[in-house]
Recover the amino acids of this structure.
């Protein structure tokens, strides 16, 4: 995708679009019309925007554009999971995954090219960090997923009912752009998703969690992964800056700001012999009494040279039972899209690491042998 000097309207929030049109001497309702064309009808060009005057369309063609990131590949797994490799400006790639389940479709969206947090068990972290995605590149992933089913009509829009910011990157390290994109996800004139169906997942950037609660109302998931600081310092290094007690306090402050009763989703990637022992369950149960939450156990998804193993199903069940007995609502995340490497922590974009944590480009390794595999467009 080539950089152009035109203004990309794709990632603009309703307020930004209104400002843009007011500078053109246009009334605010033009912004709403264009917003609907872009996000409700999936318009690719200004010529499609038939309720906009021809002269204004000409002006827009001159100075603006609606530019999505480029799709490199689309894989569809046997269980219906779809994965896109998306090339963003600068040449790096990120991944987006859609997980259908009954009448729900959960889209897992990336927020950064790579990640700077370096969690020890996450393949994205191993690739280093390149840059933040723009709001257009983030919301573009939602538009791409819906359009993969055909025209952007209400039926196809229902293929994406939930969005989780659980793809590549730490969303709270890309605060402004992630908030702009999530605003569009929930905006009635755009995607109209409810605040309960848009979830941001964070490794625990405490000051940004506080800021988030001040500017937007979305559901929150926290990647805990360990019941004590000693272990969490190793698995999630940002814990050294914001230890568990500060994180739990921030969760409670976040919940207090919401105007309805919700709980935090606590994510716990389970690794054999690392955080899956009875003593961990005991510590975790005690800790989770301190915040209204539900626990989501993610069995570790292996990747080459990770150094970790997924525990046996038996060990996971025992841990889950222990949590249930302690009164903690617990679910185990089912692994989806396995054969197209679409599971959590298996997302391998192509990151030109600016931190030099890795010395070379990690190639995209998505060739799957699934018969349903297709190339988009
Ligand atoms: N930076 C955000 C979003 C990351 S991805 C965060 O940390 O929450 C979403 C979840 O997948 C996180 O809980 C992350 O810790 C988890 N994850 C990462 N690698 C994994 C792996 N190999 N197996 C299972 N879960 C993993």
């Amino acid at each position: 995708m080539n950089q152009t000097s035109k203004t990309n309207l794709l990632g603009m929030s309703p307020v930004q679009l209104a400002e843009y049109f007011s500078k053109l001497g246009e009334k605010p309702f033009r912004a709403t019309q264009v917003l609907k064309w872009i996000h409700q009808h999936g318009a690719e060009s200004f010529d499609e925007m038939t309720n906009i005057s021809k002269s204004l369309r000409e002006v827009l063609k001159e100075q603006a554009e609606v530019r999505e990131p480029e799709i490199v590949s689309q894989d569809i797994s046997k269980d219906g999971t779809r994965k896109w490799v998306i090339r963003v400006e600068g040449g790096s790639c990120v991944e987006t995954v859609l997980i259908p389940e009954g009448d729900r479709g959960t889209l897992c969206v990336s927020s950064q090219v790579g990640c700077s947090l370096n969690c020890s068990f996450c393949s994205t972290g191993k690739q280093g960090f390149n840059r933040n995605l723009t709001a257009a590149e983030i919301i573009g992933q939602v538009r791409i997923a819906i359009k993969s089913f055909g025209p952007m009509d209400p039926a196809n829009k229902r293929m994406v009912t939930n969005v989780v910011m659980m793809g590549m990157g730490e969303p709270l390290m890309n605060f402004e752009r992630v908030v702009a994109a999530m605003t569009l996800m929930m905006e009635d004139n755009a995607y109209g998703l409810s605040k309960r169906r848009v979830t941001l997942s964070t490794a625990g950037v405490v000051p940004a969690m506080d800021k988030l609660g001040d500017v937007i109302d979305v559901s929150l998931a926290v990647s805990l992964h360990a019941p004590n600081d000693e272990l969490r310092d190793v698995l999630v290094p940002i814990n050294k800056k914001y230890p568990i007690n500060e994180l739990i306090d921030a969760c409670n402050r976040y919940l207090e700001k919401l105007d309805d009763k919700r709980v935090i989703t606590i994510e716990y990637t389970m690794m054999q012999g690392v955080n899956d022992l009875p003593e961990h369950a005991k510590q975790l149960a005690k800790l989770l009494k301190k915040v209204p939450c539900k626990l989501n156990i993610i069995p570790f998804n292996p990747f080459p040279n990770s150094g970790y193993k997924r525990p046996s199903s038996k060990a996971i069940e025992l841990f889950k039972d222990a949590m249930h007995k302690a009164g903690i609502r617990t679910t185990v995340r089912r692994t989806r899209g396995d054969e197209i490497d679409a599971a959590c922590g298996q997302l391998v974009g192509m990151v030109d690491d600016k931190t030099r944590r890795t010395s070379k480009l990690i190639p995209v390794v998505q060739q799957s042998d699934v018969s349903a595999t297709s190339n988009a467009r």
Summary: Residues 70-359 form a domain with the TIM Barrel fold (CATH 3.20.20.70).
